[in-house]
Amino acid sequence: MTSETKSKRTAHIISHTHWDREWYLPYEKHHMRLIRTMDVLMDTLEKDTEYKSFYLDGQTIILEDYLQVRPEQKERLEKYINEGRIFIGPWYILQDAFLTSGEANIRNMQIGHKDARRYGQISKIGYFPDTFGLVGQTPQLMRQSGIDNAVFGRGVKPTGFNNTVADSDYESSFSELIWEGPDGSKVLGILFANWYSNGNEVPVDPEEAKIFWDRKLADAEKYASTPELLYMNGCDHQPIQTDLAEALETARSLYPDTEFVHSNFPKYLDAVKKAKDGDLSVVRGELRSQRTDGWGTLVNTASARVYLKQMNQQGQALLEKVAEPLASYARIAGQEYPHDLFTYAWKTLMQNHPHDSICGCSVDEVHREMVTRFAKSRDVAESIIEESKQAVADAVDTSVFRTFGEDTVPFVVFNTTGWKRSGTVSVDLDVQRVYFRDGGTLEEMSRRMKELDLGARAVVDAEGKPVAFTLEDLGLRFGYDLPDDKFRQPFMARAVRITLEADQIPSLGLRTYALVGGSAAEGLSIQAGSLVKEGHVMENDNLRVEAVANGSITISDKRTGRVYSDLLIYEDTGDIGNEYMYKQPEGEEALTTKDLKASIRVEEDTAYRAVLEITHDWEIPASADKLLDQEQVELIYFPVRKAQRVQETVPMKIITRVTLEREGQGVKVEASFNNQAKDHRVRMLMPTDIESSNHHVDSMFEIVTRDNNPTKEWQNPSNAQHQQAFVDVSGDGAGLTVANLGLNEYEVLRDGRNTIAVTLLRSVGELGDWGHFLTPEAQCLGEHTVHLELIPHSGDGVDTGAYQEAYQFQIPWTVSQTGLHEGTLPAEHTTITWEAKNLAFSSWKVNEESGDDMLRWFNMKPEPSTLELQLTNQNSSVYKTTILEESSEDQLEAHANGIKLPVGSCEIVTAGVRHLS
After folding, report:
1. CB atoms within 10 A of CB 71
2. 154, 291, 514, 599: which sits with the fewest CB atoms below 10 Å from its CB?
């Protein structure tokens, strides 16, 4: 900088504390420190008028945590928030970006805004101080939230003031930059180039202050593009600096050419915008520290404690993909949408979403509590699902089934995905019940149910056509109803499990079937078929699947002629890293099941589904050697550790179930194993043999293209990356998409075959980072089950529907038993019909204030599209809205019948539907 520029510089000191709710201490121990911190903060604001303001870490949950213990401080807290001395929001919690769904991030922003609004202000700061990388759609999400900035600490490499042009999409000439998303949305990016603690503990003593500020001013000017310099006065769980005003007076006396301001983000950002002279670097897309040595990216938090990721995937899917659409559907049947229950369920789930929580990189006590939170949120979601699906099912007109007799048992199959869906569905039905209230002894009731003759049975659709199915007798079952107007009603029942092929169930809709018996079932049987061929081969119209002697499978895609071999080989390596990062012992060769003979048998063979069971009896090293214990105690940096694995082995029995359905576009895989080894990683390998220099990955509202080979700066032998629903390798005329349920880490191997390796388990014994924190439960000993789907296609995952299949794989079927009755809904029904090239459906919920339906899609491709909507309710209007569900008057669309809505490249589009009567 020139001397003239230096004479005008301003040091903006922003006070804050970065509050990890749980990390190296359990939640309540951090909580106790939070109470003290907040008490001191408000005392300081009251006593010292020169202590101007404080940024409360961008997350409103801090207010809940504090007021839970200090409810009497609410008015005082509101006073300082309204005065602009405490800045709150925009988030409910500071979430990890790559391990939480797009809808979870939107709920986080919505709930954070709602809670902040109650206190009088919302801080419009895109705050990501310590997020472990940032997804590419962040600029668009910020812009749709009315935020024009993103303040973050990781993902971009600054190159310094003299580099006027950065040579990469992932580098910036300055700590200030323009960040552009795939849709073209742009925000002002502020990188904490010297971290979010570069203004921490400012000295009051002149001699100490001179040393401090000489270094700090130089450090900031090294990267700053303007004379507006940012200093973050705080750090992780940092106590309030109560003598800051005095410390700034000392600084002013030492540096008369510098204006020291106890500032805030709005003032600082406004000053930067006014001072900016010339072009800033434009950084595009996701920020994952791509131009670094690869050792500090923290990417392997995607595989730490995989069981947490699986619970999170289930919890998110139940809330956003099942409970919300079913509750929206149930409004048609007159049921009130349970806004408060959803807020409670989402908040409980999101308390597991901060980076130190969902990333699995905390002490064991933290993750034990997370399991309880996952269960609590899931229980609420399942309660909403149960009430909603029953309300809709009871509104369906099932009277058509009366022709089969009064003992007919109707049931409704729901498709809560955004596309038509076929597949195998199971439902437990009570064929007959006897209620305790009707009298009789338990012995008599049990006898009656046991003696019930199941006899000939058939499943029919609403047109009376028979459907292929299997019936499993579950025997006697105790159950109970919980009526709204009377005491609980227990009963004994004879239960069966019906499994059938649900064919082409309409999107966001339903189809009704019935189990019929007696004479009505006679003549309704259909000819049985089989998908099992000679040997261990399964085949449908699309795919041929063969299991070979070593337990791997070969998939032949009949549509393209492409053959994929050596799929589902397991790999095991040592891991002497920690919860943050994987490190294989030096010189170790990976163990695989490639040369291990497997046991193979046909487990299921029906007209609509076949299953092969493959068993591997494997032996793997029991743990790392004792040197690892020593290296952990001595805090040896994990990339230079020398520990190896022991010679002693333990059994690793893996049972793999490979499923092919009659209409299946892919092959479903379930693998179960009992892990008794420590300090290791298990992956499933799927060679693609497709020539391509890049691959495609599902991320937040985006299909990201990533290079197979890392950049020249990358030194880490591993190039593992994050995924959400799937990873895909595609080339000319062929592609393989591998979908997963809660397996967030993959790597495309540089092995000449472009093998997709998905991490199933990673076992480590320490937290890592800044100290010695043992985490024996992170070894993940015990039973594990994982699920994947392998989906071959002809080269374009969007056009072929492979990505659609992968998204539907995330979402469970919903089924509800009902009775014989009249109803307002037909036996086959859908609420909305939509068509759009390249769009993926994301959510259907109800806005709390307006009562309007909110429907969201995102464009999977970087090209424009058009969304065409057809609504069942003709007396409705449609309008475009933001992710905050705030619409502009000029966005209101015409009549709902046949609406066409333009959708931009990679755009996230939300449509509000207002029912006028």
Report:
1. 8
2. 599
Render pLDDT for 548-607 as a digit per residue (tens, 0 to 9).
Answer: 999 999 999 999 999 999 999 999 999 999 999 999 999 999 999 999 999 999 999 999
Tell me the C-alpha to C-alpha distance, in Å, between residue 854 and each of 180, 329, 381, 830, 882.
27, 12, 19, 16, 10
Are 758 and 736 in contact, with CB atoms under 8 Å apart? no
Please give the structure tokens belonging to residue 871. 């609504």
Of 20, 130, 557, 625, the active-site residue reads 130
What are the structure tokens assigned to 679, written together? 């300090």
SS3 sequence of 705-729: EEECCCCCCCCCCCCCEECCCEEEE
172 burial level (CB within 10 Å; 0-12, 13-18, 19+)? buried
The question of whether 130 is a catalytic residue gets the answer: yes
Segments in 291-441 forming alpha helices (H): 306-316, 324-330, 339-350, 355-358, 364-395
Alpha carbon of residue 206 to chain centroid: 50
Find the farthest-apart pair of alpha carbons in the chain and give their distance in angstroms, rounded. Answer: 99
Calpha distance 363→105 (Å, rounded): 25
Record the pTM: 0.96
Determine the distance from the C-alpha atom of residue 107 to the mean position of all C-alpha atoms in its chain, rounded to a whole number.
12
- Quote the CA–CA distance of 658 and 20 in Å, as a whole number: 41
pLDDT (tens digit per residue) in 831-867? 899 999 999 999 999 999 999 999 999 999 999 999 9
The dihedral formed by the CA atoms of 675, 681, 686 and 687, expressed in degrees to the nearest 10: -150
Residue by residue, DSSP assigns 864-906 as -EEEEEEES-SSEEEEEE-TT----GGGEEEESTTEEEEE-TT
By the 8 A CB rule, do 532 and 432 touch?
A: no
